[in-house]
Amino acid sequence: MTSTVLKRRALRIEQHPTIPLYVFTLAAEEVHQVADVARISRDEAGKLIGYQRPEKKQHVRQILEYLDSDEVLFPNGLIMALPASVRFKSSPGPSSSDGLCTSGTLEITLPDSPDAPRPAWIVDGQQRSLALARTRNTRLAVTIAGFVAEDLETQRDQFLRVNTVSPLPTNLVTELLPEVGTALPTKLSARKLPAVLVEALNHDKDSPFCGLVRRPSTTAEQKADAVVTDNSLTTAIQEALNSPSGAFFPYKNLSNNTVDTATIRQILITYWTAVRDTFPDAWGLPPTRSRLMHGVGIRSMGRLMDRVMMAIDPASPHALQQARDELALIAPHCYWTKGRWPDLNIPWNELQNNPRHISTLSNYLLRIYVQEKAKAA
Protein backbone atom coordinates (compact mmCIF):
# COMPACT_ATOMS: atom_id res chain seq x y z
CA MET A 1 0.00 0.00 0.00
CA THR A 2 1.41 3.42 -1.00
CA SER A 3 1.93 5.89 1.83
CA THR A 4 0.11 9.22 1.70
CA VAL A 5 2.26 12.34 1.87
CA LEU A 6 0.57 15.45 3.27
CA LYS A 7 2.02 18.65 1.80
CA ARG A 8 1.50 22.03 3.38
CA ARG A 9 2.91 25.49 2.82
CA ALA A 10 5.11 26.28 5.81
CA LEU A 11 7.63 28.62 7.37
CA ARG A 12 10.85 27.23 8.80
CA ILE A 13 11.76 29.44 11.75
CA GLU A 14 15.47 30.00 12.40
CA GLN A 15 15.42 29.61 16.17
CA HIS A 16 17.31 26.56 17.48
CA PRO A 17 20.58 25.44 15.82
CA THR A 18 19.72 21.73 15.81
CA ILE A 19 15.93 21.48 16.27
CA PRO A 20 13.95 22.61 13.20
CA LEU A 21 10.77 24.58 13.93
CA TYR A 22 7.94 24.91 11.40
CA VAL A 23 4.71 26.91 11.34
CA PHE A 24 1.96 25.61 9.05
CA THR A 25 -1.76 24.85 8.95
CA LEU A 26 -3.84 21.69 9.03
CA ALA A 27 -7.54 21.19 8.48
CA ALA A 28 -9.36 20.17 11.66
CA GLU A 29 -9.93 16.66 10.33
CA GLU A 30 -6.22 16.28 9.53
CA VAL A 31 -5.01 16.94 13.08
CA HIS A 32 -6.13 13.50 14.21
CA GLN A 33 -4.48 11.90 11.18
CA VAL A 34 -1.13 13.57 11.85
CA ALA A 35 -0.74 13.59 15.64
CA ASP A 36 -1.58 11.52 18.68
CA VAL A 37 -1.62 12.29 22.42
CA ALA A 38 1.16 10.79 24.55
CA ARG A 39 -0.81 9.77 27.65
CA ILE A 40 1.26 9.47 30.79
CA SER A 41 1.67 5.87 31.97
CA ARG A 42 4.34 3.30 32.76
CA ASP A 43 5.45 0.20 30.93
CA GLU A 44 5.80 -3.26 32.49
CA ALA A 45 9.29 -2.40 33.73
CA GLY A 46 7.97 0.71 35.48
CA LYS A 47 9.58 3.15 33.04
CA LEU A 48 7.63 6.35 32.51
CA ILE A 49 6.12 6.77 29.05
CA GLY A 50 4.17 9.75 27.73
CA TYR A 51 3.49 13.02 29.51
CA GLN A 52 -0.08 14.20 28.88
CA ARG A 53 -2.77 14.42 31.56
CA PRO A 54 -6.16 12.70 31.04
CA GLU A 55 -8.88 14.13 28.82
CA LYS A 56 -11.07 16.82 30.42
CA LYS A 57 -14.44 15.92 28.94
CA GLN A 58 -16.25 19.12 29.93
CA HIS A 59 -13.44 21.29 28.57
CA VAL A 60 -13.44 19.37 25.27
CA ARG A 61 -17.24 19.66 25.06
CA GLN A 62 -17.09 23.45 25.50
CA ILE A 63 -14.47 23.80 22.76
CA LEU A 64 -16.50 21.53 20.48
CA GLU A 65 -19.65 23.61 20.96
CA TYR A 66 -17.75 26.68 19.80
CA LEU A 67 -16.11 24.89 16.86
CA ASP A 68 -19.53 23.71 15.67
CA SER A 69 -21.02 27.21 15.80
CA ASP A 70 -21.62 29.35 12.70
CA GLU A 71 -18.71 31.79 12.84
CA VAL A 72 -15.45 30.49 14.26
CA LEU A 73 -12.21 32.35 14.90
CA PHE A 74 -9.75 29.86 16.40
CA PRO A 75 -6.31 31.44 16.79
CA ASN A 76 -5.31 29.01 19.55
CA GLY A 77 -2.94 26.78 17.65
CA LEU A 78 -1.36 23.46 18.58
CA ILE A 79 2.25 22.57 19.30
CA MET A 80 3.42 19.25 17.85
CA ALA A 81 6.55 17.16 18.03
CA LEU A 82 7.27 16.07 14.47
CA PRO A 83 9.21 13.00 13.32
CA ALA A 84 12.64 13.28 11.74
CA SER A 85 11.11 11.89 8.53
CA VAL A 86 9.40 15.20 7.68
CA ARG A 87 10.84 16.96 4.65
CA PHE A 88 10.99 20.70 4.03
CA LYS A 89 11.59 22.12 0.58
CA SER A 90 12.29 25.83 0.50
CA SER A 91 10.66 27.96 -2.14
CA PRO A 92 12.92 28.93 -5.07
CA GLY A 93 14.46 32.35 -5.22
CA PRO A 94 16.23 34.67 -2.76
CA SER A 95 12.93 36.12 -1.49
CA SER A 96 12.05 32.84 0.26
CA SER A 97 14.12 33.82 3.31
CA ASP A 98 14.44 37.02 5.32
CA GLY A 99 17.05 35.76 7.76
CA LEU A 100 14.49 34.85 10.41
CA CYS A 101 12.36 32.38 8.50
CA THR A 102 12.23 30.55 5.19
CA SER A 103 9.07 29.81 3.22
CA GLY A 104 8.56 26.47 1.55
CA THR A 105 6.63 23.22 1.61
CA LEU A 106 6.52 20.73 4.50
CA GLU A 107 5.90 17.06 3.70
CA ILE A 108 4.55 14.67 6.36
CA THR A 109 4.12 10.98 5.60
CA LEU A 110 0.83 9.67 6.99
CA PRO A 111 0.25 6.06 8.13
CA ASP A 112 -1.34 3.59 5.70
CA SER A 113 -3.88 2.38 8.25
CA PRO A 114 -6.05 4.38 10.68
CA ASP A 115 -4.89 1.98 13.41
CA ALA A 116 -1.19 2.59 12.74
CA PRO A 117 0.82 4.98 14.95
CA ARG A 118 0.59 8.58 13.86
CA PRO A 119 3.82 10.34 12.93
CA ALA A 120 3.55 13.30 15.35
CA TRP A 121 2.67 13.96 19.00
CA ILE A 122 0.60 16.72 20.57
CA VAL A 123 2.83 18.66 22.99
CA ASP A 124 0.38 21.44 23.79
CA GLY A 125 -3.34 21.63 23.00
CA GLN A 126 -4.51 18.08 23.56
CA GLN A 127 -8.00 19.16 24.65
CA ARG A 128 -8.28 21.36 21.56
CA SER A 129 -7.04 18.54 19.35
CA LEU A 130 -9.71 16.18 20.72
CA ALA A 131 -12.41 18.74 19.98
CA LEU A 132 -11.01 19.36 16.49
CA ALA A 133 -11.19 15.64 15.73
CA ARG A 134 -14.94 15.67 16.51
CA THR A 135 -16.09 18.97 15.00
CA ARG A 136 -18.48 19.19 12.06
CA ASN A 137 -16.33 22.06 10.79
CA THR A 138 -13.85 19.57 9.34
CA ARG A 139 -12.02 22.00 7.02
CA LEU A 140 -11.36 24.65 9.66
CA ALA A 141 -7.76 25.84 9.26
CA VAL A 142 -5.71 25.25 12.43
CA THR A 143 -2.36 26.88 13.13
CA ILE A 144 0.41 24.40 13.98
CA ALA A 145 3.85 25.05 15.44
CA GLY A 146 5.88 21.89 14.98
CA PHE A 147 9.41 21.11 16.13
CA VAL A 148 11.34 18.02 15.08
CA ALA A 149 11.98 15.86 18.15
CA GLU A 150 11.31 12.14 18.33
CA ASP A 151 12.92 11.70 21.77
CA LEU A 152 10.53 11.95 24.72
CA GLU A 153 13.01 13.96 26.78
CA THR A 154 12.82 16.97 24.44
CA GLN A 155 9.05 16.64 24.16
CA ARG A 156 8.61 16.55 27.94
CA ASP A 157 10.91 19.52 28.35
CA GLN A 158 8.81 21.59 25.93
CA PHE A 159 5.57 20.28 27.46
CA LEU A 160 6.58 21.56 30.91
CA ARG A 161 7.75 24.91 29.56
CA VAL A 162 4.69 25.74 27.44
CA ASN A 163 2.32 24.91 30.30
CA THR A 164 3.57 27.52 32.76
CA VAL A 165 0.80 30.07 32.03
CA SER A 166 -2.01 27.60 32.70
CA PRO A 167 -0.32 25.48 35.36
CA LEU A 168 -0.23 21.74 35.04
CA PRO A 169 -1.43 19.58 37.94
CA THR A 170 1.37 19.55 40.50
CA ASN A 171 1.56 15.76 40.65
CA LEU A 172 1.91 15.54 36.86
CA VAL A 173 4.86 17.96 36.93
CA THR A 174 6.38 16.02 39.84
CA GLU A 175 6.29 12.76 37.90
CA LEU A 176 7.66 14.27 34.68
CA LEU A 177 10.56 16.25 36.17
CA PRO A 178 12.90 13.28 36.83
CA GLU A 179 12.70 12.41 33.12
CA VAL A 180 13.83 15.84 31.89
CA GLY A 181 17.59 16.16 31.45
CA THR A 182 17.79 19.65 29.97
CA ALA A 183 18.32 22.87 31.93
CA LEU A 184 15.05 23.94 33.53
CA PRO A 185 13.69 27.29 34.76
CA THR A 186 14.68 28.05 38.36
CA LYS A 187 11.23 27.23 39.75
CA LEU A 188 11.07 23.82 38.06
CA SER A 189 14.72 23.08 38.77
CA ALA A 190 14.13 23.49 42.53
CA ARG A 191 11.41 20.84 42.33
CA LYS A 192 13.39 18.32 40.33
CA LEU A 193 15.49 16.75 43.12
CA PRO A 194 12.48 16.16 45.42
CA ALA A 195 10.68 14.64 42.45
CA VAL A 196 13.63 12.32 41.75
CA LEU A 197 13.73 11.25 45.41
CA VAL A 198 9.99 10.51 45.43
CA GLU A 199 10.47 8.45 42.28
CA ALA A 200 13.18 6.43 44.05
CA LEU A 201 11.09 6.00 47.20
CA ASN A 202 8.22 4.61 45.14
CA HIS A 203 10.32 2.09 43.21
CA ASP A 204 13.29 1.05 45.38
CA LYS A 205 12.73 -2.28 47.10
CA ASP A 206 14.33 -1.11 50.37
CA SER A 207 11.97 1.85 50.62
CA PRO A 208 8.99 1.71 53.01
CA PHE A 209 7.06 3.69 50.34
CA CYS A 210 7.69 1.13 47.59
CA GLY A 211 4.46 0.91 45.58
CA LEU A 212 2.59 3.19 48.00
CA VAL A 213 2.90 6.51 46.12
CA ARG A 214 0.01 7.52 43.89
CA ARG A 215 1.03 9.27 40.67
CA PRO A 216 -0.70 10.32 37.43
CA SER A 217 0.61 7.13 35.78
CA THR A 218 -0.75 4.87 38.55
CA THR A 219 -3.08 2.29 37.01
CA ALA A 220 -6.52 1.39 38.36
CA GLU A 221 -5.12 -1.92 39.63
CA GLN A 222 -2.31 -0.17 41.52
CA LYS A 223 -4.50 2.48 43.16
CA ALA A 224 -5.66 0.16 45.94
CA ASP A 225 -2.08 0.03 47.26
CA ALA A 226 -0.95 3.54 46.24
CA VAL A 227 -2.28 5.40 49.28
CA VAL A 228 0.19 8.31 49.57
CA THR A 229 -0.08 11.32 47.25
CA ASP A 230 3.24 12.28 45.71
CA ASN A 231 2.56 16.00 46.29
CA SER A 232 2.66 15.65 50.08
CA LEU A 233 5.87 13.63 50.04
CA THR A 234 7.52 15.95 47.53
CA THR A 235 6.63 19.03 49.59
CA ALA A 236 7.96 17.41 52.78
CA ILE A 237 11.28 16.74 51.04
CA GLN A 238 11.40 20.28 49.63
CA GLU A 239 10.96 21.74 53.11
CA ALA A 240 13.77 19.59 54.53
CA LEU A 241 16.03 20.68 51.65
CA ASN A 242 15.32 24.41 51.66
CA SER A 243 14.94 25.29 55.32
CA PRO A 244 18.22 25.98 57.18
CA SER A 245 16.83 23.85 60.01
CA GLY A 246 15.85 21.06 57.61
CA ALA A 247 17.39 17.58 57.88
CA PHE A 248 18.75 17.77 54.33
CA PHE A 249 20.07 21.33 54.34
CA PRO A 250 23.58 20.35 55.57
CA TYR A 251 23.94 18.10 52.53
CA LYS A 252 23.57 20.99 50.07
CA ASN A 253 26.78 22.71 49.02
CA LEU A 254 25.62 26.23 48.19
CA SER A 255 29.05 27.28 46.93
CA ASN A 256 29.09 24.86 43.99
CA ASN A 257 25.37 23.98 43.85
CA THR A 258 25.82 20.25 44.49
CA VAL A 259 23.77 17.95 46.70
CA ASP A 260 24.70 14.72 48.46
CA THR A 261 21.65 12.84 47.19
CA ALA A 262 22.92 9.43 48.35
CA THR A 263 22.98 10.52 52.00
CA ILE A 264 19.61 12.27 51.68
CA ARG A 265 18.10 9.10 50.24
CA GLN A 266 19.55 7.10 53.15
CA ILE A 267 18.06 9.51 55.68
CA LEU A 268 14.65 9.19 54.02
CA ILE A 269 14.81 5.39 54.00
CA THR A 270 15.98 5.24 57.63
CA TYR A 271 13.45 7.71 59.02
CA TRP A 272 10.37 6.51 57.19
CA THR A 273 11.24 2.87 57.84
CA ALA A 274 11.34 3.79 61.53
CA VAL A 275 7.95 5.51 61.14
CA ARG A 276 6.50 2.38 59.54
CA ASP A 277 7.93 0.19 62.32
CA THR A 278 6.69 2.54 65.05
CA PHE A 279 3.14 2.72 63.67
CA PRO A 280 2.61 -0.64 61.91
CA ASP A 281 -1.18 -0.55 62.37
CA ALA A 282 -1.42 2.83 60.62
CA TRP A 283 1.06 2.19 57.80
CA GLY A 284 -0.08 1.39 54.26
CA LEU A 285 -3.78 2.10 54.88
CA PRO A 286 -5.87 4.51 52.78
CA PRO A 287 -5.92 8.07 54.17
CA THR A 288 -9.57 7.60 55.11
CA ARG A 289 -8.46 4.90 57.56
CA SER A 290 -5.11 6.33 58.62
CA ARG A 291 -4.17 9.98 58.94
CA LEU A 292 -0.50 8.93 58.95
CA MET A 293 -0.87 8.18 55.23
CA HIS A 294 -2.87 11.39 54.72
CA GLY A 295 -1.20 14.60 53.50
CA VAL A 296 -1.45 16.10 56.99
CA GLY A 297 0.38 13.11 58.48
CA ILE A 298 3.12 12.96 55.84
CA ARG A 299 3.80 16.69 56.06
CA SER A 300 3.77 16.78 59.89
CA MET A 301 5.96 13.71 60.29
CA GLY A 302 8.24 15.18 57.64
CA ARG A 303 8.78 18.22 59.85
CA LEU A 304 9.47 15.99 62.84
CA MET A 305 12.12 14.25 60.71
CA ASP A 306 14.15 17.47 60.74
CA ARG A 307 14.48 17.29 64.53
CA VAL A 308 14.83 13.50 64.89
CA MET A 309 17.42 12.90 62.15
CA MET A 310 19.63 15.88 62.93
CA ALA A 311 21.15 13.94 65.83
CA ILE A 312 21.54 10.62 63.99
CA ASP A 313 24.44 9.67 61.73
CA PRO A 314 22.77 8.10 58.65
CA ALA A 315 25.94 6.08 57.95
CA SER A 316 25.82 4.42 61.38
CA PRO A 317 24.73 0.76 61.49
CA HIS A 318 22.58 1.75 64.48
CA ALA A 319 20.79 4.62 62.69
CA LEU A 320 17.51 2.77 62.14
CA GLN A 321 17.27 1.62 65.75
CA GLN A 322 18.15 5.09 66.98
CA ALA A 323 15.34 6.54 64.85
CA ARG A 324 12.91 3.94 66.22
CA ASP A 325 13.94 4.86 69.78
CA GLU A 326 13.35 8.56 69.09
CA LEU A 327 9.92 7.98 67.54
CA ALA A 328 8.94 5.72 70.44
CA LEU A 329 8.84 8.89 72.55
CA ILE A 330 5.83 10.23 70.64
CA ALA A 331 4.08 6.95 69.80
CA PRO A 332 1.78 6.85 72.88
CA HIS A 333 0.56 10.36 72.08
CA CYS A 334 -0.46 9.71 68.45
CA TYR A 335 -3.96 8.88 67.20
CA TRP A 336 -3.62 8.07 63.51
CA THR A 337 -6.47 5.57 63.14
CA LYS A 338 -8.77 6.10 66.12
CA GLY A 339 -9.36 8.28 69.14
CA ARG A 340 -8.95 12.00 69.59
CA TRP A 341 -5.84 14.16 69.56
CA PRO A 342 -6.01 15.53 73.15
CA ASP A 343 -4.23 18.89 72.92
CA LEU A 344 -5.71 19.54 69.49
CA ASN A 345 -9.25 18.71 70.63
CA ILE A 346 -10.04 17.06 67.31
CA PRO A 347 -11.01 13.50 66.30
CA TRP A 348 -8.35 11.59 64.36
CA ASN A 349 -10.34 11.54 61.10
CA GLU A 350 -11.11 15.27 61.08
CA LEU A 351 -7.50 16.31 60.51
CA GLN A 352 -7.26 17.83 57.02
CA ASN A 353 -4.43 18.53 54.61
CA ASN A 354 -4.58 22.30 54.99
CA PRO A 355 -1.98 24.77 56.33
CA ARG A 356 -3.72 25.26 59.69
CA HIS A 357 -4.00 21.56 60.53
CA ILE A 358 -0.49 20.80 59.21
CA SER A 359 0.99 23.56 61.38
CA THR A 360 -1.06 22.57 64.42
CA LEU A 361 -0.20 18.87 64.19
CA SER A 362 3.47 19.60 63.42
CA ASN A 363 3.71 21.85 66.45
CA TYR A 364 2.04 19.24 68.66
CA LEU A 365 4.38 16.43 67.55
CA LEU A 366 7.46 18.60 68.04
CA ARG A 367 6.31 19.76 71.50
CA ILE A 368 5.63 16.19 72.64
CA TYR A 369 8.98 15.03 71.25
CA VAL A 370 10.92 17.79 73.06
CA GLN A 371 9.01 17.22 76.33
CA GLU A 372 9.54 13.44 76.28
CA LYS A 373 13.16 13.86 75.30
CA ALA A 374 13.69 16.15 78.29
CA LYS A 375 12.05 13.60 80.60
CA ALA A 376 14.28 10.80 79.31
CA ALA A 377 17.47 12.86 79.74
TrEMBL record:
Gene that this sequence comes from: dbpB
Protein name: DGQHR domain-containing protein DpdB
